[in-house]
Amino acid sequence: MHKLSIIVPCYNEEEVVSKFYQETLAVISNIQDLEYEFLFIDDGSKDHTLDILRLLAYQDKRCHYISFSRNFGKEAAMYAGLKQSCGDFCVIMDADLQHPPELLAPMYQAVSQEGYDCCAGKRIGREGDGFLRGMLSRGFYQVIQRLTHMNMSDGAGDFRMMNRTMADAILQIKEYNRYTKGIFSFVGFETKWLEFQNIPRTAGKTKWNFKSLFSYAFDGILSFSTAPLKLPGILGVLLLLVSALLGGTALAQQILFGRGVDALYLVLAIVVFLSGLQMLMVFILGEYLSKDYLENKKRPIYIVREQS
Ligand code: UDP
Ligand code: MG
Fold this sequence. Notes:
alpha/beta, Spore Coat Polysaccharide Biosynthesis Protein SpsA, Chain A, 7-stranded mixed beta sheet, about 50% helix, binds uridine-5'-diphosphate, binds magnesium ion
């Protein structure tokens, strides 16, 4: 008999968390030969979420909760949940029922019978998200995909069920600035994708605004790519080319037409040349910095899927 840990980060979710529990319980208790535990992580909620979680834990011994001393963010909550979980399989779900519990049965089928390590939900459509947010998100995923060369597609969120090996691999990645979408991609493993239609929140409010989404997007790029540090290199080469062009023109004027070197051209060429040189020095600094940055994350050098 397998055990499933259902990990649920909750931040100010008093309006939905009970409904989430009931609906998920109805689905999960219909899956044969499966034990389960609910692991709610109260991420420093300021409403009555914690009281509800206490009550659930009191009523149902398969319900557990961890309550943070303040709001640390969903990434920290997911890490804490995985760390606390003891199931053979773990699934991460939002409390607002935007991750349909009906998918739990096919997800469990994929990881327990079909040989996958992970089964992830892929949200299609962005109804309820607003036009601008949808457009910016799509743009962001294109940029991050290019910069990191990792599979982080739009709609592939945190809703996924995984086996213990994969959960342990994720826990091996101890970096403080966690960008879990990138971490899922980094650890690898065989993943099955199940599409589901985007549905609006059942109740309560989203915790995101434009500012936090932008900083999340920026964090994602910074966590998995050092490409921005190469920009001074490109700029430096461009500036050197421009200075060569300016210098060349000044020289050609003198050789071909016998005119004296235009002082303005010369000064401009020297200034641009020196700027280009500076940019190249910054680029070299950036190269050392990026090596040190990645070294400091102490990510595992490899991850084993299976061995005999
Ligand atoms: N959440 C959290 N800590 C936070 C923000 C959000 O634990 O600081 C939880 C939240 O309670 C929910 C999930 O993360 O269960 C997703 O949040 P939300 O629905 O606001 O995000 P969206 O679905 O709009 O992307
Ligand atoms: Mg939501």
